[in-house]
Specification:
The protein is an alpha+beta fold. The chain is built from three helices and ten strands, in the order αααββββββββββ. It folds into two domains: 3-51, no CATH class; 79-182, Immunoglobulin-like, CATH 2.60.40. The strands form two sheets. Strands 1, 2, 3, 4, 7 and 8 form a six-stranded antiparallel sheet that branches.
Amino acid sequence: MNLRLIGISAGVLVILSLPLAGAIAGPDFAGQDDGKNGGLFRALGLSDSSPTSSMSPARSAAPAAGPEQPGPVEQPRTDSRCGPELSSPHGVEAQTCVLVAEGRTWGRSYYRNTSGRGLDAVLTLMGPAGRTVQIRCAVGAGDEPGLCETPKDDSAGEPDSYSAVAEFAVPDDEGPLLLRSGSNSPGPGDG
């Protein structure tokens, strides 16, 4: 047989066996120890775990890896204090909360309007030292859930010193109040 043909065949076999060997040896995630002394790349001499050693000839022939991809961004924790879910006989359901995250506080009301007409919601966030933020939201007719939210503002006290109230009414000045929902949780026996 031709020596050149044997060399090419051996190279093809090595290349074709790498995915199988990788599956058997387990992944090597950015040099993390997988319990098998470094996984496939270290076993083949393609990874060097010592930070001070120079690159081996086999490694220098490998293409340079791209920049390390960051993992998922960790979302800041949002604490909430919500009142009960309420519904009115007029077809409005709501739950109102005070939310706190990263030193900011805001009010939010989740709602559903099945009354068959558009409504106005006024959400008021009350904080310590008389601080008050109020926002008006248009509540469309329909069964889709929605939310009304005040702007996020720097916290000025403990989360318990804030409360929020949402009021849902017909959108004219004389319209009746259909539902009032607050962030206060019912106490024991308030049932």
